[in-house]
Amino acid sequence: MSEVLQLERGRADDIDFVVATERLAGYEQFVGRWDAVRHGAALIDGRHAYFIARHDAEPIGFAIVRDWASPERVAHIKRIAVSRPGLGHGTSLLALLVQRIFTDTEAFRIWLGVFPDNIRARRSYEAVGFRAEGIARGNAFFGGAYRDELVMALLRPDWSGHAQRSATPQTEIPT
Predict the structure, then answer these.
(1) Does the pTM of the predicted model rise above 0.90?
(2) Which residues are CB-contacts of 106 (< 8 A; sequence separation ≥ 6)?
(3) 5-167: which CATH number, 3.30.470.10, 1.25.40.420, 3.40.630.30, 3.40.50.2300?
(4) Which residues are within 8 A (CB) of 169 and not within 5 positions of it... i.e. 6 or more apart?
(5) N or C of the chain: less Cβ packing under 10 Å?
(6) CA–CA separation, 157 vs 17, rounded Å?
(7) Facing residues of 131 across strands?
(8) Where are the domains of the chain?
């Protein structure tokens, strides 16, 4: 069995997978949820880029990047989730996504917000090179309440050095 993850641009027929993954048990406190209509609108709005990670052609995760190729050269990973957490696919997906952003755009900075109690996600982000920058108080309206987010970011020069030190041969981006 191949251990290679492939990262592809998301399409309209991937929305059902995205919606189902957002609603997996255990994600209700950590992963945002949009309905299919909102995902469909974001998919074509020019501001969001959707990506699907596949393992042996099966979708195993997704990511949404807001401000893809923005003139400010700052990309925001809005959402990332895998269908089977705990297998390392999330970290591999994130590494591929970061590579894709820095390769396909002129982004200098990639940032994301993580709830401070989401330790698994934070470890994954740190493994790829993200650094904690601080707490954004009340930054997310989630589950009917305002929640703090830990802002983490990765700069292109830091990624270049990190990528050279920790190349992962089990991931690839199809050409």
Answers:
(1) no
(2) 69, 73
(3) 3.40.630.30
(4) none
(5) C
(6) 34
(7) 153
(8) 5-167
